[in-house]
Design a protein that fits this description.
The complex is a heterodimer of chains A (about 15) and B (about 260). Chain A has about 15 residues and is mainly β. Chain A has no helices and two strands. Chain A is rod-shaped and about 35 Å long. Chain A starts with a strand and ends with a strand. In chain B, strands 6-2-3-4-19-18-17-11-15 form a nine-stranded antiparallel β-sheet. In chain B, strands 5-1-7-8-9 form a five-stranded antiparallel β-sheet, covered by helices on one side. Chain B has a four-stranded antiparallel β-sheet with strand order 14-13-12-16. Chain B is mainly beta and about 260 residues long. Chain B is about 15% helix and about 45% strand. The chains are: A mainly beta (about 15), B mainly beta (about 260). Chains A and B meet through strand 1 and strand 2 of A and strand 10 and strand 20 of B.
Chain lengths: ~15, ~260
Amino acid sequence: NSKQTSISSFFKKE
Amino acid sequence: MFEARLGQATILKKILDAIKDLLNEATFDCSDSGIQLQAMDNSHVSLVSLTLRSDGFDKFRCDRNLSMGMNLGSMAKILKCANNEDNVTMKAQDNADTVTIMFESANQEKVSDYEMKLMNLDQEHLGIPETDFSCVVRMPAMEFARICRDLAQFSESVVICCTKEGVKFSASGDVGTANIKLAQTGSVDKEEEAVIIEMQEPVTLTFACRYLNAFTKATPLSTQVQLSMCADVPLVVEYAIKDLGHIRYYLAPKIED
């Protein structure tokens, strides 16, 4: 089973 | 004063079609270099980044940087009122709370304008780091759309495996397993039919079908699509918009639980 990651965990807030 | 004019409303319709399934509303950031939009979908799994260069417009004027929050459903209603060949002009005053979208028929005999309320959206800008991708695949956009549509029947997820031999898309579910392999094309007459793979090292990643299928709504904008992949980072799906800019979708991978 695979888990969906969140895009905001890869890109930092500016 | 902001004013941007495009020769054909069809481009704007296609751009809106390419983003409105993922985003309910978005901020269009206008500056003298053009129009930028960056927004995450509601579930924060994907990010849409749209760039329209000022030199791609028939006319472009932006005296002051302007952020226009728009409801994309409302914008779709307005664009439905345009004929594909109409000229389209977007206009706003500095610090305005509305934008005017105007359509003119090619013979100038019909002119319509629509004023739309702007929204104040909480925008969360994300910095996207430069990445040296392990694999970059260029392929016909229609082929990619077909593969995503076909594989979505079998699973919620697609595994993309890229090696120097080619790129393989796989889905596995209750029905069984589906594999679609594309080899790099040898010589092709038409550049838009080519499958080109630039590989530094092989990569295998898993992604949610429903987002890939949402991205393929951009297919009418471009004959080719570019997929950029690297282990453990988001996939980048890029469609060029000829002479105007590009739309990029970033999709967070699925990882083993």
